[in-house]
Amino acid sequence: MLEVSALAKSFGSQSVLRDVSLTLPAGEVLAVLGRSGGGKTTLLKIIAGLEAPDAGTLHLAGHDLRPLPPNQRQLVYLYQEPLLFPHLTVFENIAFGLRIRKVANGKITQQVNQLLDELDLREHAQKAPHQLSGGQRQRVSFGRALIIRPRLLLLDEPFGNLDAQTRADMQQLFLRVRQQHQMTAIFVTHDSREALTVGSRFAYLEQGQLTTFASKADFVRDARTNIQQEVRFWESISRTEN
Predict the structure, then answer these.
(1) So where are the chain's domains?
(2) Do 70 and 49 meet the contact criterion of CB atoms below 8 Å apart?
(3) Which residues are bridge partners to 210 per DSSP?
(4) In the predicted model, what is the mean pLDDT of residues 120-137?
(5) How confident is the model at residue 234 (pLDDT cuts 50, 70, 90)?
(6) Class of 2-74+151-241 in CATH
(7) Which Pfam families match (predicted)?
(8) This prediction's pTM
């Protein structure tokens, strides 16, 4: 589905991405782990068309993305902030992409209601965004993205502003919706446990250089992910409590 080759980007004298390459098949979620400032957001912005690369190629479903403006790339970029239309209801926020595509009203009602049920939002359909919790607003944001059936979802730490329990709930919701819709996505995070939860493929981005892993086990074993150290820590806590 997505092929990125030898991508490079600098801002002035600062090199942000260096020779980044990845391949992402359809229906897979690439979890990209990395610390703040490592280049994760820049990578997503280049794929989305919000930044221009200095070098490299980008292909989505065999089509060169570089000459295409963001609105023609058939992808959606989701941030930490849902960025909903404050004057529209939940229903109309989700329906927006279909309305500007001139979809018939009957189909809009059917598709939006189906998605509201999948996202557990039916009872909130006529509420305004300010009447929702943070997790509910993020669900609406997902719904607005999914309703137009994008080829690729780009998720920039979408649960980073949520409390721990809501974040865990949203991770599980993401997994369920991903399976239902066979989504293809890149999910960037600085949380190793979140990466393990949401990803089907794994990568680590550090100082502009991307490492992809052949398996989850390889990802866990890499010292940079800090996963084995966390496991040992919690095992030691458990032994102490027992």
Answers:
(1) 2-74+151-241, 86-149
(2) yes
(3) 205
(4) 93
(5) very low
(6) alpha beta
(7) ABC_tran (PF00005)
(8) 0.86
